[in-house]
Amino acid sequence: MNTNHSSIIIIFTVLISSALLPLPASARCNKDDEKALIKFRDALGGLSTFPTWDPKLIPCCEWGGQDSCDNGGRVTSLDISLSAKVPPKELTKLRRLRFLTVKFANLSGPVPDFLGEMTNLESLDLSFNSLSGSIPPSLGALTKLGGLRLDRNRLTGPIPDSLGRLTQLTFLYLSHNMLTGEVPPTTFGGLIMISTMDLSRNRLVGDPSKALFGESRPTFTLLLSRNLFEFDLTKVGLPQSVSTLDLSHNMIYGGIPEGVAGLKQLQAFNVSYNRLCGEIPTGDQGMLDSTYTPKWIQACATPPSQSDIHRINDE
């Protein structure tokens, strides 16, 4: 092969390789997404609220975090901190958005119903805010969600049945709210991919065992403490893979299932401050030693006094 042919092949190879490389953020920024983010910015105070959200200074692919666009320049991730009532509806114009995080932002008002229109979301985190009202049933339309965090807000009302449609969920955090009502099997019975669920520190009632327990469930961490759950723990089948189980500060009765001592993955087990009675299983694992001894374990007929409950809740 002569030198000229070799040079042509080398140049052609370089051109192909260059074409396959991701474009810089400034060149990739989709104009429609840029307009949507500018409208979002302007609805919350403009450049005084987001001084770096200026296309003359920084491309829009870096506004929501370091390089938050795909190779086509569409915004896929938005991680922001702001002080506002609720995020404006302009967010729905970000058609490719997959990850939305707005936490520690002092958000107030209801959880926006329009979030249910953002059907490409795979992760939604609105934790550590001051959101109030009920969880909108429209969130059940986000069937691609793998993670949902609404914890540490001021949410009230029941958990909507529509969340049962989120079959891709691997973690769900609803703790530290004021949610009420029961946890029906129709809501969580079909969430077979859940590995972490935190419903603690609410006002939930009834028997959640059929919806949340079962030896074949993949649950790794289950936190239900400081609610008003009331059921017989004796015959409950616990997930074989469970690592952390906290049922403390409820009104659970019966005894601790013998099978608990055989849960090889179990690292933390707390059923204190309930109405349990009977012996504490030990087994070969030695997991249920004095560290996990439930209070009032021998006094299932004598639940904690009101003064004890108030003292416990203040801890």
Automatic annotation (TrEMBL):
Against Pfam families, the record matches this protein to: LRR_1, LRR_8
Does this entry carry the keyword Cell inner membrane?
Answer: no
Tell me which positions the record assigns to the signal sequence: 1-27
Q: State the GO CC annotations.
A: membrane
The answer on whether this UniProt entry bears the keyword Mitochondrion reads: no
Subcellular localization(s) per the UniProt record? Cell envelope; Membrane
Keyword entries, A-Z: Leucine-rich repeat, Membrane, Repeat, Signal
* The organism's place on the tree of life at top rank: Eukaryota
Q: What is its main location?
A: other
Q: Mind telling me which Gene3D superfamilies this protein's record contains?
A: Ribonuclease Inhibitor
Q: Which SUPFAM superfamilies does this entry report, sorted A to Z?
A: L domain-like
Q: Per its UniProt record, what PANTHER family does this chain match? A: POLYGALACTURONASE INHIBITOR 1 (PTHR48059), POLYGALACTURONASE INHIBITOR 1-RELATED (PTHR48059:SF4)
Q: What is this protein called?
A: Polygalacturonase inhibitor 1
Q: What is the lineage of its organism?
A: Eukaryota, Viridiplantae, Streptophyta, Embryophyta, Tracheophyta
Q: Which gene carries the instructions for this protein? A: PGIP1
